[in-house]
Amino acid sequence: MIEAQGLTKRYGNKLAVDQLSFQVRPGTVTGFLGPNGAGKSTTMRMILGLDSPTAGNVLVNGRPYEYLSAPLREVGALLDAKAMHGGRSAYNHLLCLAQSNGIPRRRVDDVLNMVGITAVAKKRTKGFSLGMGQRLGIASALLGDPGILMFDEPVNGLDPEGILWIRNLMKALAAEGRTVFVSSHLMSEMEVTADHLIVIGQGRLIADTSMRDFIERNSQAYTVVRSPQADQLTKLVTAKGGTVTPEGDSGALRVTGPEPAAIGDMAAEHGIRLHELSPRFASLEEVYMRLTQGAVEYRAGLPGGPGAPGAPQGWGQPQPGWGQPQGAPGWGQQQPQGWAPPPGPGGQPFPPQAPPAPAQQAPTHGSEA
Amino acid sequence: MATPTPQPQQPNQPPNQPPQPVPAGVHQGAAANGHAYAAPPNAAPGANGQPGGAPQWQPNGQAPHGAGAVPAQGLYQQAPTGSLHFTRMLQSEWTKIRTVRSTMWSLLVMVVLIVGLAALLGATVSDNDGSGNPDPSVSLALIGVMIAQIAAATLGVLTISAEYTTGMIRSTLTAYPRRITVLAAKSVVFGTLMFVVGLVACYLAYLVCDAVVASDVAGSSSGKEVVKGVVGSATYLALIGLFALGVGTMLRHSAGAITTVLGIMLVPSIFGGFIPGKFGDWVVDYSPMMLLIKMIAPADDADLGGGLGPWPGMILMACYAAAALVGAATLIKSRDV
C-alpha cells in the first residue's frame, strides 16, 4: 500500500507535483499515467525518499520510506535502467544491494534466472543493451521479493518480446497479491496492463479510477456513416437529436447519438443510400490526451488545443457527452463527472479485476503522443 | 518532514531474522499475516515461463503490505536502528569497492608507486646531504607516499562520485535510505582499506629500500622511526582518502572533486612560500603535504622547524577529514538525489 497525501514538490518556481493525494492498493496493477513532465518520476522518487517533498507526505506500508528497516523487502523499484555502476558485473551489482538488506546470496541467482540474464551475470553492465539493463533493473526490484513494486516507464526501449514479458510479469505480480505501480506516458500501454488508473497532468491529479470505469465512461460510441446523400442524412439525424460532424476529409460523417441500427433504419425509411455504416469507439488515447491537454492548458496557459501540431485528426471537434470542453478551468479541481473521488484512507482493497477488454481504436486516432 | 524520535525496536519485528524462502507458487504465510490475497486471475505467466512462478517469499515473517495490516496513520512502528544494520552496509560497501576494476587499479598504482619509488630511490640515490649524518632509510623509502597520495585521493573521490555519475547512488539509497549510515559505512570501509593497504605498502617500501640503499646515503632506521614513518604514512593515506571522500560527496562530480582535492593537497605547500610574512609560513606548515612530510622526514630535520609535530599533525589531518565528512553528511542528508 502506498498512500500519498497532499504531496507537493516545487523546483524553484515550478510546481512539479501539486497537492497529489492517492492510494495504490495491493492485488492490482495501478497505472500512473501522464504526459512527459507531468511529475510521474518525481512522485515515484518521493515515494522512495530520493527527493524530499516540499509539502505533504507519502507513506509506504504506513511508514515513510526511510523508516523501512529493509526497504528492498518491502518495495522494489525500477526507476531508470541505468542506476548502476557500469564497471560492476550484474551479479555483483545485485549482490551489494542484497547485502545491504540482509538478503541471502542465493536470491541473487534466483532473480537473475527469473529475468533471464544469468548468461551475462558476470559481464560488466557497461556493455548491456537497454533491454538487458531494464531486465537487470527489474531483477534488483524483485531482489527482496517485496510486496510493493514500482516501475517507471518500464517498456521504454524494450523490444516487443520484452514488452510482452514485462506486461505479463506485472500482471502476475499483482495476481500474487502485490501492489504494482507502473508509470507510463502511453495510454495504449496502460489499457492492456493496468486495472486501476491514476492520471496526472502538470503535477495535479486528473483522475483516479478503475480502468473498467474509465473505459465505460469514456469509450463513447459513435458511428461513421458514408452516404451520397450526406446533406439529407445530416438534416434527418440532427432533427432526431443526433450530432453530425465531418469525419476526416473523405466526406464521411461522424454521427453521435443514435445507434447504428437506428441510423440505418432512418436512412431506409427515407430512401437514403448508405455506403458505410460502422460503429466506432473513441480511443482512450484520445480521451487521455484531452484530459491531460486540458490540464496543460489550464496550468500553463499554453496555446494548443484544436489544430495543435501532432494532435490526432478530429481531435478538437466538439464531442457532446464527453464532459467539459477541453481547456475549461478546473479539470484538476472539480471532479469530472462520474469519476470516483480519491478513496479515503482505510478503504478496502479492490478485488483484482478482469483484464480490461482491448479498446477499439478509431483508425483516425492511431497516433501516439 | 518531521522526524520522530527514535524508538526502541518493536518486539514483533526482528530485523535480522533470516528470510524464509518459500517454494514458488505457495502462498505460505499469507493467511497468517492477514493478507487478503485474492485468487490469481488468469494472468498469463511470463513469456519465458518464469515470472509467474516468482517465489512468494515473505521477509521477516511479516510484511504489512496486505490490506489487513495497514497500520494506523502516523504510527511509525519501526524507528531507525542503524547499528543493527551497520554490518550489512559494511559488507555491501566492501563488495562495491572490490568489484570495480578502476578502484583495484588505483590501489595497485598506489602500492606500485610507494614500493617502486622506494626501490628506485634506494638503488640510485648516491649523494647524501654532506652532513655526514645520513637520514634513516625509512625517510628515503617513504618519499613515494608524497606521490601515491594522489592515487589515494582519487580513489576517495571516485568511491562516492562514481555512484553519482553512474546513477548507482539511486540504487544505493533506495536499498538503504538512511544516507548518513551509507556515508559512514563507506567511510569505514574505505578508510580501513586505505590504512591496511598503506601499511603493507609502506612497510614493504621500507624493507626494499633498506635492503638496497648504500650505507653512506641512508643509515639504519630505529624501530621507533620505522613505526612513525610506516604507521604515520598509512594513517595519512587513510585520512587524505577520507577527506577526498567527503569532498567527492559534497561536489558529486569526479573531475571537479579530484581537481579540488589535488589543489588543496598541493597548492598551499607549493605556493604558500610565496605569501609573505607569517601567514605564508602558516599556510605551508598546516598544509596536508607538510603534515605528511613531517611523518616521513627524520625527527631532527632542521628545515621543518615550525608548525606541529608529526602526531599532532595527524590529529589536524583527521580534523580536515572530519570537517569534509561532516559537510558531506549535511549535504547528503538534505539534497535530493
TrEMBL record, chain A:
SMART domains tied to this protein? AAA
Q: Which residues form a coiled coil?
A: none
Record field: transmembrane: none
Q: Where is the ABC transporter domain?
A: 2-227
Where along the chain is composition biased (Pro residues)?
Answer: 339-358
What are the record keywords, sorted? ATP-binding, Nucleotide-binding, Transport
A GO molecular-function descriptor: ATP binding
Q: Where is the composition biased (Low complexity)?
A: 310-338
State the residue spans of region: Disordered.
300-369
UniProt xrefs under InterPro entries? AAA+_ATPase, ABC_transporter-like_ATP-bd, P-loop_NTPase
Question: What Pfam families is this protein classified in?
Answer: ABC_tran
The similarity comment for this entry is:
Belongs to the ABC transporter superfamily.
**Name of the protein described by the UniProt record:** ATP-binding cassette domain-containing protein
**Provenance organism:** Yinghuangia soli
Q: What is the lineage of its organism?
A: Bacteria, Bacillati, Actinomycetota, Actinomycetes, Kitasatosporales
TrEMBL record, chain B:
Q: Which organism is it from?
A: Yinghuangia soli
Instruction: Region Disordered: list its residue ranges.
Output: 1-69
Task: Show the ranges annotated as biased composition (Low complexity).
Answer: 28-64
The biased composition feature labelled Pro residues covers 1-22
Transmembrane annotation, as ranges = 105-126, 138-162, 183-206, 226-248, 255-275, 311-332
Would you tell me the protein name for this molecule? ABC transporter permease
Signal peptide: which range, if any? none
Keywords, ordered alphabetically: Membrane, Transmembrane, Transmembrane helix
